[in-house]
Amino acid sequence: MSPFANNALREAGKRCLAWMIGGLLLVMPVVVHAQDAKLTNIIVTNTRDDLLLYLSVKGAFPPKIAKTIESGVPATFSFYINLYRKRTLWPDAKIAETTLTHTIKYDNLRQEHQVTRSWDHNSPHTIKSFAEAQKLMSEIDSLTIASLDQLEKGERYQIRAKAKLDRLTLPFYLHYVLFFMSLWDFETDWYTVDFIY
């Protein structure tokens, strides 16, 4: 058989597999978990020099997402955090904008999770327990939002934050069926915290 025929058969097999999986996903019951995820425990505080933020995501690991991660598919959470100075007659002035990512990947051979957080110098944390890995993925603690030099005493400020699960990265031949997997996406609402400095 010619190399061209081998490649054509291989591609046809991948498409067939993708269509079969897509067909199975169409008949499976769809349960949407996106509305369950929310930001909680949002705390704004400061040190002598910096404005700090603490928060966590609740409901970010419904069973389908947890099972997919445990099968070795990496997942990434993105956190969007903005700091505004509130103004009465003008639009609010954006002072700082931060986007963070947390990525989790399970190693089946070593039976351990690797969590990488962009704001934590991207140094990987290796953890055996999935519960501990979930906690690292879901929490931001002591994040510097802005220098206090950027804030004015007595002014009103607002922090707006949300979290989103980026689309799961599936093997190449399953990308044909990604549009069926929106049930694995979540995006929280924007949460706001108002404060006076």
UniProtKB/TrEMBL annotation:
Pfam families, per database record: DUF4390
InterPro entries for the chain: DUF4390 (IPR025500)
Top-level division of the source organism's lineage: Bacteria
This protein's name: DUF4390 domain-containing protein
